[in-house]
């Protein structure tokens, strides 16, 4: 089934965002693990895997619409050096994704591609959940301070 070029461009642009997010979240998870923030590292790694699932769904849709998924392009990976910077960098990725997804949904519905719009709506719900989590964490860091917040992230290894 031949897809609309504008719809395919939105799908590929979101695919680029997901591939970028996979890398950013995975790097942050590895940094968090290295810092000993085991609980946060597990959560962040899970977010990276969620973005991988989004990339898979988008790839399948692009191929179904006889397009070519662009795996060669990435947006800028934002690397935080502190806990707060990591949360802020990840939040920015989500803000941009939400804007892109909303614009894409409008275009897709306007062109009658309800399936692609539904895919974007499903991803949008996940991204809204993630930005809510990040906002909550940033508020907690502000209230508690980074040292006390970080103290909650440490897990002792099993002997």
Automatic annotation (TrEMBL):
InterPro entries linked: Bacterioferritin (IPR002024), Ferritin-like (IPR012347), Ferritin-like_diiron (IPR009040), Ferritin-like_SF (IPR009078), Ferritin_DPS_dom (IPR008331)
Sequence positions that bind Fe cation 3: 46, 50
Catalysed reaction, written as an equation: Fe(2+)(in) = Fe(2+)(out); 4 Fe(2+) + O2 + 4 H(+) = 4 Fe(3+) + 2 H2O
UniProt EC number: 1.16.3.1
PROSITE patterns: BACTERIOFERRITIN, FERRITIN_LIKE
Residue numbers binding Fe cation 2: 51, 94, 127, 130
GO CC term, one of those recorded: cytosol
UniProt keywords, alphabetically: Heme, Iron, Iron storage, Metal-binding
Residues annotated to bind heme b: 52
Subunit-structure text: Homooligomer of 24 subunits, arranged as 12 dimers, that are packed together to form an approximately spherical molecule with a central cavity, in which large amounts of iron can be deposited.
Family to which this protein belongs: Belongs to the bacterioferritin family.
Protein name (database record): Bacterioferritin
Taxonomic source organism: Streptomyces sp. SID12501
Species classification: Bacteria, Bacillati, Actinomycetota, Actinomycetes, Kitasatosporales
Name of the gene this protein is made from: bfr
């Amino acid at each position: 089934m031949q897809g609309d070029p504008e719809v395919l461009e939105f799908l590929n642009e979101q695919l680029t965002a997901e591939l970028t997010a996979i890398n950013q979240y995975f790097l942050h998870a590895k940094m968090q693990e290295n810092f000993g923030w085991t609980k946060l590292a597990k959560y962040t790694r899970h977010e990276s895997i969620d973005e991988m699932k989004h990339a898979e769904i988008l790839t399948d849709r692009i191929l179904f619409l006889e397009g070519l998924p662009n795996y060669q392009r990435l947006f800028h990976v934002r690397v935080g050096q502190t806990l707060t910077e990591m949360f802020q960098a990840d939040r920015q990725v989500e803000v941009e994704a939400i804007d892109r997804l909303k614009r894409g949904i409008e275009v897709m519905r306007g062109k009658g591609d309800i399936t692609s719009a539904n895919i974007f709506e499903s991803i949008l719900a996940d991204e809204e959940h993630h930005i809510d989590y990040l906002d909550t964490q940033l508020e907690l860091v502000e209230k508690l301070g980074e040292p006390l917040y970080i103290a909650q992230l440490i897990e002792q290894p099993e002997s």
